[in-house]
Amino acid sequence: MDDSKFGKKDARGNWVPSARISYGPFFSWPPQATALREWLFGFPGYFLPWNVLYAVLAIVIWQFLTPSLTDFSADTGYWVGVILARNVVLALLVYGGWHLWFYVWRKQGTAFKYNSKWPRQDSSAFLFNNQNADNIFWTLVSGVPIWTAYETLLLWAYANGHIALLSFADQPVAFILLFFLVPLIHEVGFYFAHRSLHWPPLYKIAHKLHHRNTNPGPWSGLSMHPIEHVIYFSSVLLFLVIPAHPIHMINLASRLGLAPAQGHTGFDRAVTGEDKSMDISYYAHYLHHKYFEVNYADGMVPLDKWFGSFHDGSPESHAAMKSRIAERHR
Ligand SMILES: [Zn+2]
Ligand SMILES: [Zn+2]
Predict the structure, then answer these.
(1) Range of the domain at 283
(2) For residue 47, how far is its CA from the centre of ligand 2 (angstroms)?
């Protein structure tokens, strides 16, 4: 398994990608038509594979794993229980799947692994002295129930006519467009939620818990304090004001619930065959876990660039980060 084509290992054996973290051409000026086309339709690109995959997942969840709005309003309590169970199963499959691949079966050893060490399983910083057990606990005991609470609150509001419902038959173009706006809503919502969590008082009581994972694995993704879960999932409340279909809300909610798994694998890509690798790169967020004060967003909208907290992985970015910190402590 050759990870040296895409980066190199440093003295400690940590794999560092050679490409700098960059934003897609979506926000560059003047517009670059070819680059934009490739960024949108290439593989990996804006649509494929992940955004299309999450959209398909939302369709499957809505069609087969969610009650109709009439059923939901007739027996809300029962259906909340069913949706909670469904979300627990989804979390086990997705977080568990990534974890099995990389950390139990160790399918690719430390190839493409940002931190050469395996997460510690004997650290008193974590519940049960075990990072993974701690991460699973916060995900299933707090994360999934709060995700379910938001999702079912919104379903209740749709079912009882408290919010506008957009149908495919009436507005097909808006319906499809909204699907592909969800990733943007997700990213911008995440940036502001995350930025507020780094406000010292909130950091101390809530976000610190997530940041104990300096060497994250998939289960670290949703391992957060309940206060952080409440803030993190709150971007679904946007659907109280944006006319949409429950399928769009489910797209955002399930993405918030499941995407942190791939965002925290600790690997740059999953090697799936001889020379075939699947891009799961979240180096920006890995650097956030390593240095705390950089890359609050995931890297599609250049929010960190605009607000001066961008670290693209280069020595220059690193020096800039250090001088920002020194400046603040002066
Ligand atoms: Zn994180
Ligand atoms: Zn953070």
Answers:
(1) 7-329
(2) 27
Q: How far is the CA of 288 from the centre of ligand 2 (A)?
A: 7
Per the document, the length of the chain is 330
Residue 45: how many other CB atoms lie within 10 Å: 17
> If you measure from the C-alpha of residue 309 to the centroid of ligand 2, how many angstroms do you get, rounded to a whole number?
12
CA of 290 to the centre of ligand 2 (A): 10
Distance (angstroms) between ligand 2 centre and the Cα of 323 equals 20
Q: How many domains does the chain fold into?
A: 1
Q: Is residue 2 part of a domain?
A: no
pLDDT digits (tens, 9 = 90+) for 193-246: 999 999 999 999 999 999 999 999 999 999 999 999 999 999 999 999 999 999
317, with CB counted inside 10 A (0-12, 13-18, 19+), is: middle
What angle is formed at CA 261 by the lines to CA 234 and CA 244, rounded to 5 degrees?
A: 40
Rounded distance from Cα 136 to ligand 1 centre (Å): 14
Kindly state whether residue 1 falls inside one of the protein's structural domains.
no
